Amino acid sequence: MARLRSLRALDLEVALRAALAAVVPLMVLVALDRIDLAAYAAFGGMTAIFGRSEPYRTRLRTVTAAGAVQLGSIGAGILLSAAQAPLIVEAGVLAVVIAIVILVYNTLGVTPSGPLFAVFAVLVCAAQPVGDGSGWLRWGVAAAAAAFAWLLAMSGWLLRRAARTREEAIFKALPRRVPVRARAYADPRVWLNVVQNVLAALAAGGVAIALGIGHPYWAVVSAVAVIPPARAAHTVQRAWHRVIGTAVGVGVTALVLWPEPPIPVLIAVIALCQFGAEILVGRHYGAALVFVTPLALTVAHLAAPTPLPVLLGDRLVETVVGAVLGVAAVLLARRFVEHVPMPPPTAATPSIRPKERP
């Protein structure tokens, strides 16, 4: 019984549906010999990581919003690629996406409320060539994956009713209540988070472009990954945990990709990484990034294979660039709130603490 409670505490239900949402669409693409569309399926499938531990009425709202955001971000990336938009336009779209995601997620109570997955989607999709009029096909793959992920996220509603008499023994409780915050736009913490993410993302992308290192999107993603959500504590310790987790994840990716395994093995790795990330994300985000990083790099490698030394070397340098700028954004936010106090916190909106906790 103690072991059962321990497994429930690890949130296996959430991890399993996230892994299925990542793997099943990829298996379909392999069967259709269209693994080149893997990135679109993967980003649509990320819809399933939202809504964890929420009652289904709440989850309907949050997962639907997350799915719409993912599809909107993917669509924006496809349009940028098809139009061969200049960097200044891509930077402007990125800033708008970050602002919209943070505002929408904080208003509707979506968790995680940061723009990481949307930023990753728009930039990677913008980097994929779309010159053959296949934009709608690519977006359709993402939409199908998002719909499947949405169904998985909501599937527990039926399963819990089918096993009502044993629900307490089989399923994890759903304790999280996430209220709608209609005036989130008036919360200065939210706008501080928008400014942090936009400045760090644009700075990381600019530095990566100036250095001429591969695709600059990984530096941007690394910067955004370091920055905590709008109402979380801005501590340097947490930021460095995320930096170390990302760097270790690059090393794990080297061990996975160096033997050049076949596609079925890579899909199994994606499933394992998605599962591990969901198990750890609520406990230690830095540890979760050890799984998130190889997950992201493996998906990118499936979509557009790159010589491994180039892939890992570029990503490691870009990770350092992005992480350093992300930490700088955390430090600047702490310094800002020391001089411009935030409104009194509530249970729903804890303050940004300027000092580390012991």
TrEMBL record:
Signal peptide: none annotated. It is a multi-pass membrane protein. Residues 205-328 form the Integral membrane bound transporter domain. Keywords: Membrane, Transmembrane, Transmembrane helix. It comes from the Bacteria. The chain crosses the membrane at residues 12-31, 37-53, 60-81, 87-106, 113-130, 136-159, 190-211, 288-304, 316-333. Its main location: membrane. Pfam families: FUSC_2. This is Fusaric acid resistance protein-like. It is found in: Membrane. The lineage of its organism: Bacteria, Bacillati, Actinomycetota, Actinomycetes, Micrococcales. GO terms for cellular component: membrane.
